[in-house]
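Hey team,

Filing this mostly as a record. A colleague (T.K.) asked me to run one chain through the structure pipeline before their review meeting, and I want the input and output archived in the tracker in case anyone asks later how it was produced. No errors, nothing strange. Just documentation.

Input sequence:
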Amino acid sequence: MSARPPLLFAFQGPWRRVVYVGLYEGLAIAFVTLALVAGRQSLGTAGGVAVGSSLIAVAWNWVFNLLFERWEARQSVRGRSAARRVAHAVGFEGGLALWLVPFMAWWLGVGLWTALLLDLGLLLFFLVYTFVFTWAFDRLFGLPAAAA
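Output structure:
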């Protein structure tokens, strides 16, 4: 059985990553801004948190994956087991929280506990959002060459 053709253009390599990150973060900024506005934040405050969080997440993603892959290259056991994937996810999200919680507390003028609760809400949202977005992206633009 052959794979379905993409509904739009099939991007591969660096262009696929650029389109993916651009769409992912653009929609995420819109969703987070709308959620914060619905939670009674001003548009400027909500947009600032959304854009700032997005910039922090993209930068942390780059740094964390660089460090993780360097560590991974030194391991005698190759491949990505479930345990290694869990370690990656927990390390990424834990590190991201160390950056986002103080940023949100400062930007919103709230305590660290309130910012942590907000970050946990974002974590749950992004768990579902990432799954849905990636599925839709692959349907629209096709699978990456490594998975096709």
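Quick notes for T.K.: The chain has a mean pLDDT of 88. The helical segments are 13-38, 43-73, 82-108, 112-141.
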